[in-house]
Automatic annotation (TrEMBL):
GO molecular function annotations of the record: transmembrane transporter activity
Membrane-traversing stretches: 6-27, 39-58, 64-82, 89-112, 118-136, 163-182, 212-232, 291-308
Keyword NAD: no
InterPro entries: ABC_transp_permease
Keyword set includes Transport: no
GO CC list: plasma membrane
Superkingdom: Bacteria
Topology in membrane: Multi-pass membrane protein
CDD domains per the UniProt record, alphabetical: TM_PBP1_transp_AraH_like (cd06579)
Compartments where found: Cell membrane
Keywords: Cell membrane, Membrane, Transmembrane, Transmembrane helix
Protein name: Sugar ABC transporter permease YjfF
Pfam families in the cross-refs: BPD_transp_2
Organism: Pleomorphomonas diazotrophica
C-alpha cells in the first residue's frame, strides 16, 4: 500500500487534466484567468469545508454537520449585524468560537461515549439547523458597509481575471491544511488514527486530544466557510448549504482520500474541488445541459474512485498475505 498510496492522487490529477483539456477543446474561452478566478470564487466556501472534512475522513470519521454549521453561521451573522451595532470582525470572532466549540463537543462525545461519528454528527446536523430556524426562517440580507469593503478586495490576474478575497482565503486554508497534515505532529496523529486505532494507542498517540482537535478543526473551518458564504451571498438563510456535507465528502473521495482513513492528501481534495467546479463551468458554458448533470458526473466519478480504493485495499491485503507466507516459509526452512 505504501508504494501505491499516491495512485489515487495521480488518478485525480489525470482526471482533472483530461477534463480541462476536453473543456478548452470544446470551449476555448475556458482557458482564461476570468474563468479560473470565477471557479475559485464560486467554490471557495466548499473548498474550505472540504479541508476540514479531509482531516475527519483521514482519521476514519465523518462529519455530517458542516452544511448546517455553515447555515447557522450565516444566519447568526445576518441577525446579529441587523439587530446590534457590533462590528462584523467581532461577530466573526464570536461565531468562530461557537462553531469550534461545537465541533470540539462532538469530538468529545465521539471519544468519551464511544459513539459512532455518523450518529453524533447527524445529531449535530439537526441541532445546528434547528438553531438556525429558531433565529429566523427568512433570508436576512447583510448590508453592513464592511461587507462591501471586503467584497471589493481582489488581485487582478493577467488576462483580466480577479482573485477575490474569499478565493484567497480558500487557497490559504488549503496551503495551511497541507502543512498541518504533512509537517506537524497533529497531522501524524491524524494519519495514525485512521490507519489503525489500536496501534495508534499503543504508540502513545493522544487519541482523545486528537479526536477532539479534529472535529474542532472541522467546526472552525465550517464556521469560516459560513463567513465566506455570507460574503459570497450577502445574506443569511436557514435553508442555505443543504447537502454541502455530501459535496465536501465527494470532493475528498475524488481527491484520493480513502474512506477507511489513514491515506490521502489535502492537495488531492483541492483537485477534487477543481474537478467539481470544472464540471459546473462546462455546463454553464454549454447552456443546454441541466445542472443535474453535475451530480450525475460526480456520482460516476465517485463510483470509479471507490472502486480504485477497493482495488488498492485488495492489493495491499494480498501483498501482506504473501509477505506473511514468505516469512513463515523462510522460518520453516531455517528450522
Amino acid at each position: 500500500m505504501k508504494n501505491s498510496k499516491y495512485l489515487p492522487l495521480l488518478a485525480t490529477f489525470v482526471v482533472f487534466v483530461l477534463g480541462y483539456v476536453i473543456c478548452i477543446s470544446v470551449f476555448p474561452n475556458m482557458l482564461s484567468t476570468r474563468v479560473a478566478g470565477n471557479l475559485l470564487t464560486d467554490n471557495a466556501f466548499l473548498g474550505i469545508t472540504a479541508v476540514g472534512m479531509t482531516f475527519v475522513i483521514l482519521s476514519g470519521g465523518i462529519d455530517l454537520s458542516v452544511g448546517s454549521v455553515i447555515a447557522f453561521t450565516g444566519v447568526f451573522l445576518s441577525v446579529i449585524l441587523r439587530d446590534t451595532s457590533i462590528h462584523p470582525l467581532a461577530a466573526f470572532a464570536i461565531v468562530l468560537v461557537l462553531t469550534t466549540a461545537f465541533g470540539a463537543a462532538m469530538g468529545g462525545v465521539i471519544f468519551f461515549l464511544d459513539m459512532p461519528p455518523f450518529i453524533v454528527t447527524l445529531a449535530g446536523m439537526f441541532l445546528a439547523r434547528g438553531i438556525s430556524y429558531l433565529l429566523t426562517t427568512e433570508s436576512v440580507p447583510i448590508t453592513h458597509p464592511f461587507y462591501s469593503t471586503l467584497q471589493e478586495i481582489y488581485i487582478r490576474m493577467p488576462g483580466g481575471g480577479r482573485l477575490t478575497l474569499i478565493a484567497m482565503i480558500m487557497l490559504a486554508v488549503f496551503a495551511l491544511g497541507i502543512i498541518l497534515a504533512q509537517r506537524t505532529r497533529f497531522g501524524t496523529y491524524v494519519y495514525a488514527l485512521g490507519g489503525n486505532l489500536t496501534s495508534a494507542q499503543l504508540m502513545g498517540v493522544p487519541v482523545a486530544k486528537t479526536t477532539i482537535g479534529i472535529y474542532a478543526l472541522s467546526g472552525f473551518l465550517a464556521g469560516l466557510s459560513g463567513i465566506v458564504f455570507s460574503l459570497y451571498t450577502s445574506a443569511g438563510y436557514s435553508l442555505a448549504a443543504v447537502g454541502v456535507e455530501l459535496d465536501a465528502i465527494a470532493a475528498v473521495v475524488i481527491g484520493g482520500t480513502l474512506l477507511t482513513g489513514g491515506y490521502g492528501f489535502v492537495a488531492g481534495t483541492f483537485l477534487g474541488i477543481c474537478i467539481q467546479g470544472l464540471i459546473q463551468t462546462y455546463i454553464v458554458f454549454d447552456g443546454t445541459l441541466s445542472s443535474w448533470w453535475t451530480k450525475i458526473v460526480i456520482g460516476l466519478l465517485l463510483f470509479g474512485f471507490i472502486a480504485l480504493q477497493r482495488g488498492l485495499m485488495w492489493m495491499s491485503e494480498r501483498s501482506a498475505r504473501n509477505m506473511r507466507h514468505a516469512s513463515a516459509a523462510a522460518q520453516a526452512s531455517g528450522a
